[in-house]
Amino acid sequence: MRQAITNGEQHLRPVLDDAQFAQYVAIGLAVREAFRTPALRDMFIARLKPHRKLIIGSVPAGIQQHGMLPARAPMRSLDDIADAELAQWLVDDGRLIYGEFTQQELDNYFAAMAPMLPAQGHFIDLGSGLGKVVMHAALALPGMRCTGVELLGYRHDMAQARLAGVLAAGEAEDAALAAQVGARVRLLRQDMFEADVSDASLVFIYSTCFAPLMDRLGDKLARELPLGALVSTTTFPLQHPGFELVQQFAPPSVAWTTVFLYRRRGAFDTLPPATASYIYEQDGAAWEEAVCAAFAAHDALQGG
Ligand SMILES: C[S@@+](CC[C@H](N)C(=O)[O-])C[C@H]1O[C@@H](n2cnc3c(N)ncnc32)[C@H](O)[C@@H]1O
Q1: Which of 20, 187, 238, 258 has the fewest Cβ atoms nearer than 10 Å?
Q2: Is 100 close to ligand 1, i.e. is its CB under 6 Å away?
Q3: Which pLDDT score is estimated for 9?
């Protein structure tokens, strides 16, 4: 069954062109136009620079070659887009990025987590993508229920297809195990901020692209998780007083990036009000330099 959990990282990204993404596409096309057009690049920098803490890397992923925007020309111009709309667009853009741990990284991860978990707990992956972690969890943590929560419909559909493939492969290898895994895995299409985590034993978040969401996630999890529940994040820490750091796995001990493990602690009536401070901000000059290098790389690609 393990072998059937493959190929998610390289999955074909669709062009986003349905009604659900109309606003994302309209703003994205305007941002991309400003990136590509030399006369608009000062505006690109002026408009995006104040929001650079929301950008994963230097240039938003959606306007790059591998982005999911359609090829057509924009109907709106970047200077007609309000600042708040632009900021929300950058948050949405970060959420659309995809990445998965390798099988080896997941083996490392579950080997480290298993001794700290109850035999019959509940594992939840918030932002579960194509479901690789959830399916691995079901194999690595034999008594636990395993839930994946994914916002994007096409990724949720691919996760369901992947699960069906894994269970079909399992039927031939070990039908009892396949049936047991099938009964313990649940894939939900849902916004993680709406997910029920009230009985979770371990929440996994591949948070490498979630810098702007970390405070909101910390707040939700502190209010809704049972005391003692574990949360792991990647790349970005969960800086919230409702959590204590249990362990920090430096790369490459578990994965290519740092994995942080926290435990929910402290009384619920002492939680602070929701905060809105961001933990990640790039130096302005370094960001601008990286963007100018990206302009040059784009032009070189066009010219040659
Ligand atoms: C970096 S991928 C990780 C996928 C999976 N957890 C793994 O490690 O293989 C992050 C996933 O979170 C999803 N996502 C982003 N924002 C979300 C939200 N508000 N609710 C649920 N899923 C979300 C993205 O669509 C993406 O599939």
Answers
A1: 20
A2: yes
A3: 54
